[in-house]
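INTERNAL AUDIT FORM
Audit reference: QA-55
Scope: verify that the stored structure record matches its stored sequence.
Auditor: D.O.
Record contents follow.
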Amino acid sequence: MRVIIKLAVIFPLLFLWILLINPDSAFPDSLGDRVTFKTINYFTQDYDNTDAICKKVGDHCYIYLADTVSMSNQLIENTKNEFDNHIYPTCRYYFGIEPDIDGDPRITILIYDIKSSVVAGYFNRKDQGGNNKRDMIYIDQDLSISSDCYGCIAHEFQHLIHYNMDPTEEIWVNEGFSCYASYICGYGEHNNSKIYAFLENPDNSLIDFYDAEDHFADFGAAYLFIYYLVQEYGEDERNFIKNIVRDKADSITGIENHLPGNITFVDVFKNWIIANYLDSSSMDSKYQYKDLDIHVEESWNQLYVPDEYILSIDEPSPVSNWAADYVRIVLKETGFKLNSIFEGDGTSQFSNSLIYDNQILEFDLIDPPNRIGNLEIETNSRMREVVYIISRAEMDPDGDGEYQIALQSGISSLLPPHLGSEDELFLSEKTGCFIGMAGFQPSLF
């Protein structure tokens, strides 16, 4: 009798305590519940009130549809099942656990008209303690009927997890792992448009997010770097990813803390930009992507006319920090020494490579005030293509990334009194600041 009386007293008190601590968690949502959510309107850059109804209650999620959204019951059921059975366990396995601001183990997925021409989904950290006071993500209504829907849900769910594991992480790392979440969950095609945007614009900073005219290129760079990082240096994929995600050190430091041996972030970056061009194991397996076909595009093409001795590019662009320019030269003739002379802005930390005849050579650059260096190769009939990769890797950037390259035929000296030979040399394809020369005194000296 005393036990029954005690339980009758304790249970109401316990229930009251739960209500006081977290009133929103007292009752789980039910099928048919109506809720008014605060949602972002990207056109007005403000919040709207969006009325929605709970259409599905899963093991790990609630699926809410805005009143204006029409979606078949089968599609909603498929979305619930895909999240419960695949996305939820996979993302938690690789990235960590989500927060629990509402005391409810289920994630709210709201499908509504996001009102944006580019945003397909998002996670809003203001829901953690404010706004909707829920662990939730948002998906645009246009995606609800496409194959990209699941990839977007995986992408946004990783953001929710990452917020819980390391809320101050830099955008580029967080976005890179969210794109990787789409891939690891089996929806890699969700990232294709981002990859293509970056391949068309490789002079796009890896870490300066939203600096590109086409923001998709930022996502593409971040995704490809994280993909390459994990496949090349994450022998234990799951723990490698989890350790980076939960490391409270951010950006470059948070990644470098978990690299094997004496490998640095700069080492990874240098190998990555070469892999972006080669994507081949012919020289080393570290220059090949697994399961992806990657090749950055050259954006400028011109034939070198034999009776002209100077080829120059007007209005050259500097190379961005943590990015690369790719200059491709096709030799008109071979059998001569080709001397490549580089000079860059002295305050910029350049890292330059030359690829020729199955070799990768690195420029040894003199320190400021002028970063000057040269490489000499013997050309042969086996290979008529020379590729220059010019990059910057500055922790505290203060340079402008301006540089020049001079090509000389038959001259071995770094600082010759004149270029001498007037051989016709090449046609050129490039993505960046380049001056190809034969038969004149280079302006950079």
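Auditor finding: record pair retrieved intact. Confidence is low (pLDDT under 50) at residues 14-24, 303-316, 411-445.
Action required: none
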